Amino acid sequence: MKKTLLAVCLSGATLISPLAMAEDSFPRLETIGVGEITAQPDMAVFTVAVEENRKTAQEAKQAADKAVTAFMDRLQKSGVKRADIESANIYLHPQYHSSNDAPPELVGYQASRQVTVTVRDLEKLNTYLDNALGDGINRIQNIELKVSDAEKYMEQARQAAIKDAQSKAKSLAQGFDTDIDGVWNIRYFDPMPRPVMGHMKMDAAMETQATYQDAEITFRDRVEVVFRLEK
C-alpha cells in the first residue's frame, strides 16, 4: 500500500514542469482597487397600480380599466411616448366574508392593474404621480431614479478602481524600498452593477414633495491586480 501511494505522488509531481515553477516564483504584490463615482439622476421609472372593489367582476374590471385608460391618455397628452408606458394585464380576485358559524360568502370582486412609466424629464415626475392619483390610481408601488448614460459613469468608476489599485501598489512598494515591475495578473469580475441610491432631500416649502433632483446615485466597481516587484 505504501509503495502504491508513493508512486502516485511521484507521478503527480511530474505534471508540474520546472519552467512553470520558476515562472511562478517571483516577488509580487496583490492589491484591490475600488472606484466610486456619484451622479445626479436625470430620469426615472415608476410603477403605479389601481385596485377596485365592486359587486361583480365586470364592474370591478371596468372601474380599473377606466382609471388606467384615463392615466395613460393624460401621460401621452403630456408628451410621454407610448413606448415609455407599459400596462400590465388585469387581475380579478373574488372577495369573501368569513364567519365562525357560516361558510365563506362571496361579497364581490377586486380588479387590479399596474402601469409602469419611464420618465425622461425628471422635473415632471412628481406631476405625473399627482396626475395618477387624480385619475383614480390608488397605489404608488415603486420609484427608481436613474441616469440616462449609466455606462459612462460605470466606465469612470472602473478607471477609478484601476488607478486606485496602481496607487496602492506604488505606495506599498515604496514603503518596502522596492519598485513595481509591471502587471502579472488582473482579476476582474463584471459585477452586473446596480447603482446605489443616495439620500433624497425634502423640499422645505413643500413637505410632501420629494425634490428628486437632489438625489444621488453612486456607481461602484473594483479590480484585483497582481503586480511584479523588482528582485
UniProtKB/TrEMBL annotation:
Show the InterPro entries listed in the entry: 26kDa_periplasmic_antigen, SIMPL/DUF541
Signal sequence interval, chain numbering: 1-22
Q: Which NCBIfam families match?
A: PRK11087.1 (NF008299)
Record-level GO BP terms: DNA damage response
Instruction: Recite the UniProt keywords alphabetically.
Output: Signal
Domain of life according to the entry: Bacteria
PANTHER family noted in UniProt = PERIPLASMIC IMMUNOGENIC PROTEIN, SLR1258 PROTEIN
According to its UniProt entry, this protein's organism is Photobacterium halotolerans
**Full protein name:** Oxidative stress defense protein
